[in-house]
Design goal:
The chain is an alpha+beta fold and about 130 residues long. The protein has two helices and eight strands.
Length: about 130
């Protein structure tokens, strides 16, 4: 009897986790749509959204090379980054001739100005492949 009751409780517990998930944050990821291009050794990122990309973390080639951009990318603004600014964990710099550009991902917090105050909107993520 005790075994059946314990099994029943475990089954109900698993069902509740599957039905409602186990996330406690309740946050969803925002959708951003940057315009990405590169020329020579320069990467251009244009924020096409009506919100700021705050302190974006940018990764190239399946996350092998990373850059924590130290500033925000304001709405409708474009930034230019030298590709050699992207580093592997061991400190090796990105070399487009050696590695080529495969893909890029951007994760950041987003905010916007509302009535003279800045409102935090949440986390955002974007991923794209180069042709």
């Amino acid at each position: 009897m005790k075994f059946e009751r314990a099994t029943f409780i475990v089954v109900i517990f698993v069902f509740l986790i599957l039905a409602f998930g186990c996330s406690t944050s309740g946050e969803s990821t925002l959708t951003i749509s940057p315009n990405i291009r590169f020329e020579g050794n320069w990467l251009y990122i244009k924020n096409t959204n009506h919100m700021s990309y705050d302190a974006p973390k940018i990764a190239l080639n399946d996350g092998q090379f990373k850059l924590d951009y130290p500033m925000s990318i304001p709405s409708r603004e474009e930034i230019r980054i030298n590709l050699s600014s992207f580093l592997k964990p061991d400190g090796e710099r990105f070399n487009i001739l050696k590695y080529g550009l495969v893909d890029i991902s951007i994760s950041c917090e987003c905010s916007r100005e509302m009535g003279g105050k800045w409102e935090k909107l949440g986390k955002a993520f974007w991923y794209g492949k180069f042709k």
